[in-house]
Specification:
Blueprint lengths: L1 E7 L10 E6 L2 E6 L10 E11 L1 E6 L12 H11 L1 E6 L10 H11 L5 E4 L15 H7 L14 H13 L4 E3 L4 H4 L4 E2 L2 H6 L3 E2 L1 H18 L3 E3 L5 H12 L4 E6 L8 H5 L15 H13 L4 E3 L7 H4 L16 H10 L6 H15 L15 E11 L18 E11 L2 E4 L4
Parallel strand pairs: 1-4, 5-6, 6-7, 8-11, 9-10, 11-12, 12-13
Antiparallel strand pairs: 1-2, 2-3, 4-14, 14-15, 15-16
Helix pairs in contact: 2-3, 4-7, 7-8, 8-10
């Protein structure tokens, strides 16, 4: 296979030159300009699109097993490929939860022939109940790459301490859903001026920040690695920034919607439940802090928290709707519009947040763009304008705040495990 007219972006390439890439038996066989096609070689001309090592979303929900009416491993991987991701890490709030080795192996088996690598994140506690530690070592041996009770926090501090001690021996991170439940519930949006105006119970930012502060202190005490999931408040970013300066083993991620949308959208969009997620949309000050954290390196990773829900679940009154939105298909255009087009981050920095850092945090092999390595590639552009029409949704669910909006920049395809997937608009 010969891939023509691509501009490489990696640790060693800034997307300035145009090259051709020849792939043979799934391995990059040659990189150069003006390569000629060989006999019986498939040729694909990308017309100057960018190419980088394959992106990874380290925080998504595939829903299978147990909630296949929302998403399956297959449809979730279809959405990931359309969004430019060659790998995803899936959270364990399934039914049964990913709390035993057999569930870990089931997910890996279901995904093995798909073009997107699926890495299960296993439960910290049995049944995600927060009471006793799950069989971490056995699940690691089965293929789990991290531990989390996401959907809920590990609420008991002693349980979290023991979890950090065990996971540090396994050299794996604990990814915690940072929420002090006593402070946060029954909140349906960010607590502040907008929630007061709308008469909705709010979740204060302090509910996130107190749990992050606890986890940073526990990580310092145990030497374990805490990864702060879906960070969303200004003070939370400051806490992580200070912890990193002290040398504490803490990393964090931000979802695309948290550096794009604010709680004002709930009023503007007349209680559209596709704007309800957790952590909730915060204020403009918080959005600005997310961008600042990405720019200065406090925030390591861009993710989506892709959380599919069926139409029936979301088409209810705002207070009764489940939290969560899909995000895999729109992650690149939102990142492109809010970070690249505004000159906050360059393409190399974006690829670092989308490719290198998630794989480093999860102790996965670093991808390279050079001769002799397995081809694991994402193809994307920055200028194409397109409509995120519902017919272009590859996920099984359609709960997105970006439906029918004009977006700029698109992931035009991926190559992984010998599969070339080209994303055509419908």
């Amino acid at each position: 296979m010969l891939l023509k007219n691509l501009r490489p972006v990696s640790k060693d390439h800034k997307g300035k030159e145009t090259v051709d890439i020849r792939i043979k038996d799934g391995v990059i066989d040659e990189i150069g300009s003006g390569l000629n096609a060989k006999k019986r070689e498939d040729v694909h001309d990308f017309g100057g699109a960018y190419v980088s090592p394959g992106w990874m979303d380290m925080h998504i929900h595939l829903r299978e097993p147990g909630y296949e009416h929302k998403e399956t491993i297959k449809t979730g991987c279809d959405a990931a490929a359309f969004g430019g991701f060659t790998a995803v890490a899936c959270m364990p709030n399934t039914n049964p939860p990913i709390h035993t080795r057999d569930v870990v192996e089931y997910i890996i088996k279901k995904a093995e022939k798909l073009p997107v690598d699926v890495h299960p994140i296993a439960c910290v506690t049995k049944d995600r109940a927060g009471k006793s530690i799950a069989e971490m070592g056995d699940m690691k041996d089965g293929g789990a790459i991290a531990f989390s009770d996401d959907g809920d926090p590990v609420y008991n501090s002693q349980v979290m301490r023991v979890a950090l001690e065990y996971s540090s021996m396994l050299e794996m991170p604990i990814i915690n859903h940072e929420e002090d439940l006593a402070l946060s519930r029954p909140g349906h949006m960010n607590e502040g001026r907008v929630s007061t105006r709308l008469g909705l119970d709010g979740t204060p930012s302090i509910a996130e920040e107190t749990m992050i502060a606890r986890d940073i202190l526990l990580a310092e005490y145990t030497g374990g690695h805490i990864h702060v999931a879906h960070i969303s408040t200004k003070n939370a970013v400051d806490l992580v920034r200070q912890a990193k300066k002290k040398g504490i083993n803490v990393t964090t991620e931000v979802c695309t919607h948290h550096f794009d949308l604010t709680d004002e959208e709930i009023d503007r969009q007349k209680f559209d439940t596709n704007f309800k997620m957790h952590p909730p949309l915060r204020t403009q000050e918080d959005v600005d802090a997310m961008i600042e954290g990405l720019v200065d390196g406090t925030i390591d990773v861009i993710c989506t928290d892709h959380a599919p829900h069926s139409i029936e679940e979301k088409e209810v009154e705002f207070i009764y709707a489940p939290n969560g939105i899909i995000g895999l298909e729109t992650a690149w255009p939102i990142s492109n519009m809010r970070l690249y087009k505004t000159k906050k981050l360059d393409l190399q920095q974006l690829v670092e947040k989308l490719c290198y850092n998630p794989r480093s945090i999860l102790k996965l092999e670093e991808l390279k763009l050079e001769k002799g390595v397995k081809a694991n590639l994402t193809f994307f552009n920055t200028d194409e304008e397109w409509i995120f029409d519902p017919k272009n949704v590859r996920s099984k669910s359609k709960n997105s705040p970006y439906l029918n909006q004009k977006l700029t920049g698109r992931a035009v395809g991926i190559y992984n495990k010998g599969h070339l997937v080209l994303n055509e608009l419908r």
